[in-house]
Amino acid sequence: MKKLTLTISILLVVGITAQAMRYLPNQNTFLTVTNAQNTNNCNENHGESLEMELSDSSLDTSINESIHIKKETKMKNATILHQANEFVKKGNYEDFLAYCTPDTKWFFVGERILEGKDKVRDYMKEFYVEPPVFTVETTIEEGSMVTVTGEITLKAPNGIYHHYDYCDIWRFENGKIAELKAFVIEKENLDK
Fold this sequence. Notes:
Blueprint lengths: L2 E7 L10 E5 L4 E5 L7 E5 L3 E7 H5 L8 E4 L4 H13 L3 H5 L2 E9 L3 E4 L1 H11 L5 E10 L2 E11 L5 E13 L2 E11 L6
Parallel strand pairs: 7-12
Antiparallel strand pairs: 1-5, 2-3, 3-6, 4-5, 7-8, 9-10, 10-11, 11-12
């Protein structure tokens, strides 16, 4: 019988209870074990971690009454952002804008402020003559904030490509892009 091993870090702070979590990457969901009395094995390791082994059959067929599993379907904001940006890469700007709040606000530090979807749409029409080519180097998520760093290349109306390093700080509200603070630095023109 296969066993599922969950490792829980025990916080040594009075009043804080740890919960076992199992991530299902194909579904972008977590399973939370809220009461783990009937585990097959519980081993404590120097008071720092607790290892629990649950048999797969208890998860797949009949869930034991003493183990309650709650499915959480809330997607992480970083995942939402990267999905939305796939539309930008393909030039599907309206599909990207569906990920934004109606009053989304974008700050391009030292350059301009865009307020609302219509202003963002106008910006994309003006500056994304062709879909931008960008790479993501780092993504950091903390609460409702997602910070992304990388490089982006934009084609100007005169046909010249401009290359930039960027650091974008995104704020989300209810799974939608509410705000962007973008730090964009142009690189030396590589097409000369």
